[in-house]
């Protein structure tokens, strides 16, 4: 199964072999993989080598460890194309997943200068500040902190903001969403966010900031999203 003469290090060969078994369905999503001791015997290598392969697969998001229980096969990451301006609800629905929402904050605030500038607000104009945990099939995927100008959505309230923001804007308010600009960077999760996203500290996250505009050029939202790096992969097609 493994080639001891190969120049490919043993831990990489083991990683590849475990990946093959996951792909073949021998180790399905959610199933436990054999223990370190069993793998040591199976591959006839040291425990250190097995541990290195497993750690790499955990870091790549293919496996996850649960204290005292073992190591399990993770669900494949959501592949999010970086084209087209879609909503979270649409993104999950096109993948056949059920989108979920938990509103954890809804406040009317005077925004700081950065948000006010991005939303092109005059001095003293207020925004709704909304924090939502976004779920796919009941699993937390992202935490979104959204700033919306009150003047654009005067009738918005904690009670009316239950489903998709974009369908509320387009269908109920009949406004036309046009485009957005986005920035993405890597970071480490903060403890309070880790709890909401049900991940450990430290964990990697992807921070995305989106400023979105209506067809008349009016900015209507600034959103700071925290995506679980173990659940997301962003992909883009590029041309030369
Ligand atoms: C996405 C958008 C966010 C938007 C939300 C609306 C990114 C990075 N962000 O999460 O800007 O507010 O969708 O989703 O894609 P909803 O219509 O399901 O509420």
Essential attributes:
240 residues, alpha+beta, six-stranded antiparallel sheet, 7 helices, 10 strands, 34% strand
What does this structure look like?
The protein is of the alpha+beta class. Helix content is 27%, strand content 34%. It contains 7 helices and 10 strands. It has helices spanning 10-24, 36-43, 47-59, 88-94, 113-118, 165-172, 191-197, and strands at 63-66, 70-73, 78-81, 99-109, 127-136, 139-149, 177-188, 204-214, 219-228, 232-235. The strands form 3 sheets. A 6-stranded antiparallel beta sheet has the order 4-5-6-9-8-7. The protein has a two-stranded antiparallel ribbon with strand order 1-2. Helix 1 (10-24) crosses helix 3. It starts with 9 loop residues before the first helix and ends in a 5-residue tail after the last strand. The model has no long low-confidence stretch (mean pLDDT 95). Bound molecules: 2-acetamido-2-deoxy-6-O-phosphono-alpha-D-glucopyranose. Residues 87-89, 144, 146, 164-166, 208, 210, 212, 221, 223, 225 line the site of 2-acetamido-2-deoxy-6-O-phosphono-alpha-D-glucopyranose (16G).
Q: How do the strands and helices of this protein lay out in sequence?
A:
Blueprint: H1 10-24, H2 36-43, H3 47-59, E1 63-66, E2 70-73, E3 78-81, H4 88-94, E4 99-109, H5 113-118, E5 127-136, E6 139-149, H6 165-172, E7 177-188, H7 191-197, E8 204-214, E9 219-228, E10 232-235
Parallel strand pairs: 3-10
Antiparallel strand pairs: 1-2, 4-5, 5-6, 6-9, 7-8, 8-9
Helix pairs in contact: 1-3, 2-3
This protein binds 2-acetamido-2-deoxy-6-O-phosphono-alpha-D-glucopyranose (16G).
């Amino acid at each position: 199964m493994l080639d001891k003469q190969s120049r490919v290090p043993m831990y990489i060969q083991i990683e590849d072999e475990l990946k093959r078994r996951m792909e073949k369905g021998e180790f399905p999503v959610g199933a436990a993989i054999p223990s370190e001791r069993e793998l040591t015997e199976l591959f006839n290598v040291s425990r250190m080598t097995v541990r290195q392969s497993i750690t790499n697969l955990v870091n790549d998001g293919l496996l996850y460890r649960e204290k005292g229980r073992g190591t399990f096969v993770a669900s494949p990451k959501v592949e999010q194309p970086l084209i087209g301006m879609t909503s979270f609800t649409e993104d999950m629905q096109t993948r056949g997943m059920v989108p979920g929402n938990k509103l954890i904050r809804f406040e009317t605030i005077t925004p700081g200068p950065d948000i006010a500038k991005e939303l092109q607000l005059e001095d003293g104009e207020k925004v709704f500040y909304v924090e939502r945990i976004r779920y796919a099939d009941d699993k937390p995927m992202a935490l979104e902190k959204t700033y919306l100008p009150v003047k654009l959505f005067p009738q918005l309230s904690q009670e009316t903001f239950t489903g998709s923001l974009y369908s509320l804007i387009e269908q109920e308010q009949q406004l036309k969403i046009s485009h957005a600009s986005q920035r993405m960077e890597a970071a480490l999760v903060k403890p309070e966010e880790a709890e909401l996203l049900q991940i450990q500290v430290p964990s990697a996250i992807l921070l995305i900031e989106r400023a979105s505009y209506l067809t008349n050029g009016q900015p209507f939202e600034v959103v700071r999203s925290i995506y679980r790096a173990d659940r997301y992969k962003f992909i883009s097609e590029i041309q030369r």
